[in-house]
Here is the input.
Amino acid sequence: MSLGNGKRTANREKRRELEEQLSSLPEVLKDRKLIREEVKQRLVNGLQTQTLEYDSIFNYDKANLNKDFNLLSLLFHRMFFYRLNEKLSGLTCDHTLRLSNQILTQMKLGRGKINEVLEVFKKNGGHCDCEVLFNVESQLIGK
Ligand SMILES: [Zn+2]
Here is the structure.
């Protein structure tokens, strides 16, 4: 009998620990309007205040293999690739970096910095907007 009680207490203890772990995880934004607001804040002002579901697809170890990790991870967290995907969806890529350029301008990066980013894209196989998603973002996300 006393053994059973002890076991039950241990289970309750374990469950409490698990609940604490879960509640300490950052809450992911679900509301579409709030998501849009967070994306805009990060993109334009580089201000990150909330956690987005998109954040969880970033693969640090994989991304870290790239020589341009710092620049590329900054672009990821400022939602550059997310925005490019949004802009490109429903369009056919026109084989230029037109949309990438637009977004980098919206991010208030200077001309010199933009050129540096575009060079890094090209070096990584991103010669046009769709290739930036297929060949560059893919180096930062997933397994
Ligand atoms: Zn393309």
Remarks:
- The chain has one domain: 2-139.
